[in-house]
Amino acid sequence: MSTPATERLLKSNDENFTIDDFKSNMPRWCTGCGNNAILTALQRLCRDEKLPREKTVFVSGIGCSSRFPHYMNTYGFHGLHGRALPIAEGIKMARPDLHVFVNTGDGDCCSIGTAHWIHAIRYNMNMTVLMHDNHLYGLTKKQASPTSPQGLQSNTTPRGTFLEPLNPLSVTLGITNASFVAQAVDWNPESLFEIISRAYRHKGFSFVRILQRCPEYVPTMFDHWMNHPDKTLLLTHENGMQVSPSLAATYKNQETHDPLNLDRAREIASMTEQVPVGILFHDPEATRYDDIRDPDRPISPETIRSALDSEFDKFTVWPEQ
Amino acid sequence: MDTTTKPDLMPGTDGTKAPAAADKTVQTLDEHIVEIVSDSGEGAQKCGQSFAAIAARMGNGIWTVEIIPAEIQPPARSIEGASGNRIRVGANYVTNGGDETDLVVALNEQVLLGRVRTGELKPGCTILLENKWRDDRDEEIVASYTQTHDELVQAGFRVYEIPMEEECLRLVPDPKRGKNMFVLGILCNIHSFELQMARDQIAFIFGNKSQAVIDANIELLEAGHDWAECNLDFKYRIPATKASEPQIVVNGNTALALGVLASGMQVCAMYPITPATSASHYLSDIFEKVGGIVHQAEDEIAACAFAIGASYSGSCALTITSGPGYSLKQEAIGLAVMGEIPLVVVDVQRGGPSTGQPTKAEQGDLLFACFGGHGDGPKVVMAAASIEDCFYSMITARKIAETFNMVVVVLTDANLATAQQPFKRPDFSEDWIAPALDQSALPEAARPYDWDETTGIARRFIPGQPDGMHCLTGLAHDRDSAVAYDPLINQEGMERRSLKLATLQKTLTTPTVYGDPEGELLVIGWGSSKGAIEEAVDRVRQDGHKVSSLHLTFLQPLPSGLKEILHGFKSVMTVENSWSDDPASEIIDEDNRRYSNLAWLLRARYLVDIDCWSEVKGQPLKPGTVARVITEHLQ
Predict the structure, then answer these.
(1) What is the pLDDT of residues A245-303, one digit of tens each?
(2) Does the residue B272 lie in any domain?
(3) Touching check for B295 and chain A: CB below 8 Å?
(4) Which of A70, A127, A317 to mutate: most B Cβ within 10 Å?
(5) Who wins on pLDDT, A58 or B17?
(6) B290 and A88: CB-CB below 8 Å?
(7) What's the confidence (pLDDT) of residue A11?
(8) Residue of B271, B431, B462, B471 for testing the chain A interface, max A β-carbons within 10 Å
């Protein structure tokens, strides 16, 4: 990406970071876990976007993926199972100056936290949400999740899951005021980074579902997609993801998809024979709850005193003069 | 008041003036309990509240209690559908709703029956009854009205049949709207209130309506006033002492919302629930004036989590709820305890368990507030005892929350939420609000949980502060907020969080005994029952009993000095509006008796054989009931 000369000059005094600046504790994920790739992509994003570490907060729920904030050298909030989104909303509402990211899993987001997910889409507050979807519960040791493919054998479904999986993309696209919906895969770093960058730059609720490998419990879950690049549908557009020639050479199955086309986005979301990668929907104009509700009056003792006095006046019985 | 003489019923409703008016004398009363009941939507609430406000303007002490049906539009003319307001008017300061009603205005006989059957009316109580039902087209209604009327008269009630509908029809086409102001006029006349004060009150409550609306209501008010003057044969005066300082007259939920504003808190996250929500209604109206927001979340859990997020990032936040919502918030409250995030949680208690009695008064959440949630979760629990307390408790709660990085639970209840009582107009102090957000860089090697060895308090790191980066976690963690794998680290974290409660405890003052510090019996209460208990204690002391009372604001931690107080009395009992087993029951004994909340708490801590009395009738405790309980206990 090219930057105008004046802007480059202005930025020359900026603090520059390295990826190491954003590394914290050594991740305790399993070898080969897809979360490592997502972590690297996010550390790279923070470096490239020059996010001040103290102004950046990663909020998560509970689960393997929700350990994420422990491994970022920023502020982090590793909270409750399913409740990352309302906590992140509270943070963003109180502090619009903070860069807020949310890490959540398919159990965290699409099962125990579903109510919050639906409403967070509608609130459309400015934050980047990474839904690490490995199609099962890992931290509690292999139980089926809402996104598990039908028939998956797990500790709670020893003879296979009973129902068709929930589709997080089509659900998200079905909610009023959805503003940014994308899908990425952990095994393709270039498109993962490109999609997360786009998500971060969107002012609003960016929902990125990331298909994430779990080598411990379902090692072959995504082999079908990984071994057949033609089964991946790259979504490209001048207002969406742009791909390098080398990526385009590997993934020849592409569609020029305008992210403003909601109807087509819903069709793409429902595909079962191929896995779409890219930006399905992006509406930069969607109403933002944090924008509407941002208080325009600063809190000061004077404003409180005057507001209180005018309220008290409504209820006061004055002594006789 | 004199209820032995039974006056003649009013003469016919042909509009002629009764001769009774001419020679009526004005009887002076120390206090009078008045209520007005109607179907929902007939304006009895507005009439009652206005009557109370006028009394307060006159300089009388007041306490109001709302009579609320569970449904928005219950069936008309139904016993359970009674909606209205009870107002205790006194010559002196009034601290509670008092005993049974002296005078009731009823817009139909069915809503009145509900009040009669629950024993809310004093024997011989004066009843002013809308008489239009006597001539109703529906024979069943006529029969029901006539039968009820006759039974009430037989039972010794002073029943006055009043042509409210007919009189209002002279002024307005639809008396269903406006009859309440006619009734207000009657009540003002009976109590010798200055009519101008009533006119002012009407102008105030209809302030956002047109002058024509105000004039029409004033006309109805004056008509009611004149009708009573000409047709009723009694009139009262309750001496008033005008306050020397300005007073504000609000209910507990409004006081609470004003307290939130005054505390400098900036974020209130809530989910609709009765009886807490009216606090958020009012706050929604005023909070943005000072840069605050009320966020109506998608559920109770989200409301608590949202408040935690806001508070974590530097804006002390609160969430307001009632029992069922408080249950749902437990996990999130545990997170705030573990992460040491300041948080104010208000539980406006109602009848439980489950959905229980949403609109009724009960104080059954004390132990739950202290010990709810899994694992050890030290948090502060305090209770408001008056309308004024509802205001100041918000300022105190916020201070404690931010000083100790703790969760502070403030308990009020349906009684305080809807009751009105005047209190001295607060004078705002800048000390009430917190200093500006600290975003200065932290010293090198600063640790996010650098717990003080003695107090357990650690300096809180707020996002945005350079060099304070750490990952807050609900997992057991060490001083760096790193996940604890070492058992000693968990031991230390638990100890430090517990120490903060002990540190706060060291700052609390011993509450004052109401009455002598020694005697036969000490009655202990908490929350909204303070006024009723103290009034009951006054009454039994007049009977010569050595009884005192003690009221607790801080329930967790409990202040020092209580043990010494307990030992000054031969026996001790709590009086509470919650469940306890009756020791007189056939299979209840010392091995299985379940005590009421505060009794459990005090017995466990002080090893004193504290008795309890409680009831769960959904009504505020009455001083007469408490006085009877005390007297029985002494025998």
Answers:
(1) 999 999 999 999 999 999 999 999 999 999 999 999 999 999 999 999 987 767 789 99
(2) yes
(3) yes
(4) A317
(5) A58
(6) no
(7) 56
(8) B471
Closest chain A residue by Cα to residue B481: A70
Which pLDDT value is given to residue A14?
Answer: 64
Identity at A301, one-letter amino acid code: P
Inform me whether the pLDDT recorded for A3 exceeds 90. Answer: no
**Shared-domain flag, residues B442 and B428:** no
Beta strand pairing status for B317-321 and B547-552?
unpaired
Judge whether residue A321 has pLDDT over 80.
no
For residue A108, pLDDT over 90 is answered with yes
With respect to residue B365, please indicate whether it lies within any of the assigned structural domains: yes
CA contacts within 13 A on the Cβ side of B264: 23
pLDDT at residue A319, rounded to an integer: 83
Q: Does B430 touch chain A (CB under 8 A)?
A: yes
Among candidate residues B214, B237, B260, the one where a domain is terminated: B237
Range of the domain at B276: 248-432
Q: Do A72 and B471 touch (CB under 8 A)?
A: yes
- The pLDDT, as a whole number, for residue B487 is 87
Q: What pLDDT is recorded for position B235?
A: 96
Q: How far is CA A157 from CA A133, A218, B455, in A?
A: 19, 14, 50
Q: What would the pLDDT profile of B262-290 be if each residue is shown by its tens digit?
A: 999 999 999 999 999 999 999 999 999 99
B565-606: per-residue pLDDT in tens? 999 999 999 999 999 999 999 999 999 999 999 999 999 999
> Do the chains contact at A54 and B295, CB–CB below 8 Å?
no
CATH number of A18-294: 3.40.50.970
Domain-terminating residue out of B384, B416, B432: B432
Q: Do A87 and B306 touch (CB under 8 A)?
A: yes
Question: What are the E-state strand segments in B264-383?
Answer: 267-270, 293-296, 317-321, 343-349, 380-383
Pick out chain B residues at pLDDT < 50. 1-17
- pLDDT for res A296: 72
Task: Clarify whether residues B359 and B465 are in a common domain.
Answer: no
Distance from CA of A287 to the nearest CA of B (A): 16
In this structure, the answer to whether residues B305 and B422 fall within a common structural domain is yes
B292 CB neighbours in chain A (<8 A) are 295, 299
A chain contacts of residue B253, beta-carbon cutoff 8 Å? none
ipTM above 0.90, yes or no: yes
